[in-house]
Recover the amino acids of this structure.
């Protein structure tokens, strides 16, 4: 879980000090994205009141499948390519994503998962996010930057995405290698309704306190063990809309799992609750 020492290949996490080194050295072809996501705040307004110098705003609410009835579904590859290309990103860009949320890194984790799913591996997450950056008393700005659009080619990789139909097969036990279903929502939401056979592992169990940094390898393994999740078996992560679920994907990658071994159920509870109604045994409760 070390930091990125050079341009290729980047590691999953980068700490604030190394990011500042890259910025001071004007590292070529590096773009920083503020990927903040919070349903209770206007995160774009927060971005305009302060962000890492040079960081561009990435709207998760805009970069989605707008034809879907579910809120944050992964957009089709051409839509994603057009969205990120308009930001000035191409396939040679090294991207650093961060989140301005003291409760977690799930916005950054979601965008990290999206880029990986569409074939782009030159990406790191700022460990600790904007909170960690400010804790170091590094500079911030209110200036909004724009870059010249570039061409980005996106191809959806197999194995990153789990669908409603995939989950049904898992619950029925008709797959050749059944996956463990993991609900990363807080226990109160899990108890009020969850996917059958799923285990609860709240996303915040992956984080240190008070800074929202990812736990080290030993801490992550203990968190999985405490939730009775076997890291040697496939995992499907879900939450309310597929955003926080990406944090479990991130943790799995840090522990050496392949993307195919720890996928994200994109529709998550938002889709499942609506499509599972009327099907006996498709929803469990733990009251």
């Amino acid at each position: 879980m070390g930091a990125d020492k050079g341009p290729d290949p980047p590691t999953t996490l980068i700490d604030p000090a190394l990011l500042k080194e890259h910025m001071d050295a004007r590292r070529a072809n590096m773009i920083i994205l503020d990927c903040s996501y919070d349903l209770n705040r206007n995160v774009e307004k927060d971005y305009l009141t302060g962000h890492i110098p040079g960081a561009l705003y990435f709207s998760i609410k805009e970069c989605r499948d707008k034809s879907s009835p579910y809120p944050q579904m992964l957009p089709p590859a051409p839509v994603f390519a057009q969205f990120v290309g308009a930001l000035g990103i191409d396939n040679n860009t090294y991207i650093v994503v961060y989140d301005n949320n003291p409760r977690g890194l799930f916005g950054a984790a979601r965008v990290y998962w999206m880029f990986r799913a569409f074939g782009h591996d030159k990406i790191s997450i700022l460990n600790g996010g904007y909170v960690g950056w400010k804790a170091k008393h590094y500079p911030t700005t209110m200036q909004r930057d724009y870059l010249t659009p570039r061409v980005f080619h996106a191809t959806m990789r197999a194995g990153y995405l789990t669908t409603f139909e995939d989950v049904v097969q898992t619950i029925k036990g008709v797959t050749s290698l059944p996956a463990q279903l993991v609900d990363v929502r807080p226990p109160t939401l899990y108890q009020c309704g969850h996917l059958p056979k799923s285990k609860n592992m709240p996303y915040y169990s992956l984080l240190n306190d008070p800074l929202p940094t990812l736990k080290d390898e030993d801490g992550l393994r203990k968190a999985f063990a405490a939730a009775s999740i076997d890291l040697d078996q496939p995992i499907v992560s879900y939450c309310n809309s597929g955003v926080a679920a990406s944090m479990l994907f991130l943790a799995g990658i840090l522990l050496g799992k392949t993307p195919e071994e720890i996928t994200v159920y994109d529709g998550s509870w938002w889709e499942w609750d609506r499509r599972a109604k009327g099907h006996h045994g498709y929803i469990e409760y733990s009251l």
Observations:
- Residues 1-7 have pLDDT under 50 and may be disordered.
- The radius of gyration is 18 Å.
